[in-house]
Design brief:
This protein has eight helices and no strands. The chain starts with a helix and ends with a helix. It is 73% helix and 0% strand. The radius of gyration is 14 Å and the shape is globular. It is mostly helical. It has one domain.
Length: 118
Amino acid sequence: MAAKLYRLKNTIVKQSPSIHAILLQLPPTQIFLFDQQRAGEVLQLTSAKTDSDILLLRRVLAAHQLKLASAAALANRLAIRYDIARTRSDQLHLREEARFVLHVREQPCAALTLAMTN
């Protein structure tokens, strides 16, 4: 199913590149790309589109998986956004923050706390 969605997404992106950000947010597509060790494609799909926290998270995860030099700077940018959200008592993206804390910060206990709060 994920592979089928991925192929469909690629067809749509070729016809209308502006909607790739929406399609990338489909969980099966993201999971499929990361599970297939295709983080480079995630970087291509999210290039320079870091105004969305969710897309920035995908970029951070991909850069981290590929061990790129830019991974730390991207992770710091996202951490600042999560800090800002926390000061506003915004808890809309706790699931994504939990993923960030687990995979990038490598803090499973803190990630579990965030996930349970979500």
